[in-house]
Design brief:
By secondary structure, this protein is α+β, with helices and mostly antiparallel strands. 39% of the residues lie in helices and 11% in strands. It has 15 helices and 8 strands. Strand 6 and strand 7 form a beta hairpin. 36% of the residues are buried. The N terminus is likely disordered.
Amino acid sequence: MSPRSALKAKSEPIQPEASARPTMLLAWYDRHRRRLPWRAMPGQTSDPYRVWLSEIMLQQTTVKAVGPYFEKFVARWPDVTALGRASLDDVLRMWAGLGYYSRARNLHACAVAVTREHGGVFPDTEEGLRALPGIGPYTAAAIAAIAFDRRTMPVDGNIERVVSRLFAVEEELPQAKPLIQQLAATLLADSRAGDSAQALMDLGASICTPKKPACSLCPLNEDCTARALATQETFPRKAPKKSGTLRRGAAFVVTRGGELLVRSRPEKGLLGGMTEVPGSDWLAGQEDATAKQQAPDLKGLSRWQRKVGVVTHVFTHFPLELVVYTAKAEARTRAPEGMRWVPIATLAGEALPNVMRKVIAHALDPSTASPS
């Protein structure tokens, strides 16, 4: 296809030969499909619970990172009813380290709803799925297609990239999402909707990658507008990212022998329900002296020692810098209201987000001790 005809093709209705795309995709998928712990083997029926659990975990997280967590969850809670009967604290502990913790709270709420309101059986339509906590349009479409073979096309980041290149979608994301959704739907086969979706996901993950796509191996390479124009790596078009304003604060790590002072964050909001060491507010332009004034008040506490350096962490909407202070409490010091002592040896089982694990590691590292 010449560049001129490619440009013309993307502005006209789907060409007759385009009807072969779904068939070619499925043929490629049957030969090259990825083996994933949540994916049913060829000829097997997909388990809606495993599909749902994986889709929630995979939101803004890589397949590599999700794998071990998925295996831990299904070993502990093999079906949605078991998960629905678990406590939120246990779910948060198992989730710790995977990030974006609102997903864990929504996961638990959804499991409870399916268990109590649907008898442990997931609804098999997009509409029914969207009524559940934590399930938005994409996740509902993914579960409906993959678990129930409903003829719908979920569009994740991989599919977005494949489609934007195939049709050379010039509009920038996120404004281009509705158009990409329409174009992606043209790649659905008459049957095997779930396999059609997973074929595109696998194509984006293994062939149509963000950088250096292996176009020569792509089953749709002769029909790809961006490839014809040699502009593959410029798609999808994206508006410049806005970086959030840096926030600053202090973290206070108090030990009592082999124990650490912690508290739980409020259920709602950032890192809701997770475990943390006491700390100041996280504010833009906050001075260290102001942050230190928010240290916990304990009797008989040793003098606060500021650790060398800062702990940095990047959330979705802002970067964070934390100054870390340490102090030691006497043997029988009681925890302030709303706080508790936990053994340092059992911290791996606490629902600590990554930023808090960084703080504790920094605090307990002898090399970051303040110069005497």
